[in-house]
Amino acid sequence: MSESFNIANGKCPCCGARLDLAEDACEGKAQAPLPGDFSLCSYCAELLQFKEGGTLEQASIKSLMELTPADHKIIEKNQKWILANRKK
User: Fold this and answer.
1) Residue 14 and residue 48: Cα distance in Å, rounded?
2) Terminus of the chain with fewer CB atoms < 10 Å: N or C?
């Protein structure tokens, strides 16, 4: 079961939406987001990364290149779901 964590300064740098919760999608012990952890904006589906202090930035090309093909498939699947199910 996943756990949600409050984001103190959560704002999507791409669309400007206020993001106040992050959900841990990993198996095992849930933990709050750490700098470098990825997230998806639940409004525009952009891939983001946490910075020091809990703020978010758009994921860098370098970070994207370090992901495995399996990671890319998971991200793409979740982006498609967000875009198909977002409120218009």
Assistant:
1) 9
2) C
Residue ranges of the domains in the chain? 4-85
Closest CA to 20 of 10, 33, 30: 10
In this structure, the chain runs to a length of: 88
Centre a 10 Å sphere on the Cβ of residue 17 and count the other Cβ atoms it contains. Answer: 14
pTM of the model: 0.82
3-state secondary structure of 23: strand
Angle at CA of residue 85, ends 4 and 47, nearest 5°: 60
Mean pLDDT value across the chain: 85
Locate 26 and state its tokens: 């990993």
Angstrom distance (rounded) from CA 62 to CA 40: 17
DSSP letter (8 states) at residue 60: P
